[in-house]
């Protein structure tokens, strides 16, 4: 990483319960959390926003949220997000063939029409050289109501910010998955890393 995380003892006292909870839930304190926590006035609202997008009662189901985050992470060259989201999808039972096909979602029959519409929208928002057009929005609106479209747009914007943050500061993947690179230079999670035996 280009910025070293501080030792846990150096973070402000009022963040320690949240950092403890993150560490307990994930086993380690993820690199992005340790970096954002250096700036508590940014970290606290960022955490609240992330939790709002990840709530169970959201307009988008967890698999769809992870698929779009995985694709945004690929486009923005964020191996951390690709590793994390592929692991999450696999943990909920998604086939590796579908996870690995995310870079070719538009030509793969592994994705539903709804998933393809959402992924097209996320990709158009992420690739700034291609503005989001009325056709792309119309395709999404056949599957989502307007409130869900607002949530989708916010989530894609959030994922763009966090993946660009991670990629720019060279936050490494956590090692959940074996990673490879496709022909376009995008990170692809290939398999779950097995724990090593002592």
What does this structure look like?
By secondary structure, this protein is mainly alpha-helical. It has two domains: 53 residues, Single alpha-helices involved in coiled-coils or other helix-helix interfaces (Up-down Bundle); 134 residues, AhpD-like, CATH 1.20.1290. It is 55% helix and 6% strand. The chain contains nine helices and two strands. The chain has a two-stranded antiparallel ribbon. Strand 1 and strand 2 form a beta hairpin. The model has no long low-confidence stretch (mean pLDDT 89).
Task: Offer a few descriptive terms.
two-stranded antiparallel sheet; 2 domains; 198 residues; Single alpha-helices involved in coiled-coils or other helix-helix interfaces; 9 helices; 2 strands; mainly alpha; AhpD-like
Nutshell version of this structure?
The chain is mainly alpha-helical and 198 residues long. The protein has helices spanning 16-26, 31-36, 40-53, 62-75, 79-91, 96-100, 113-126, 134-141, 146-168, and strands at 177-181, 187-192.
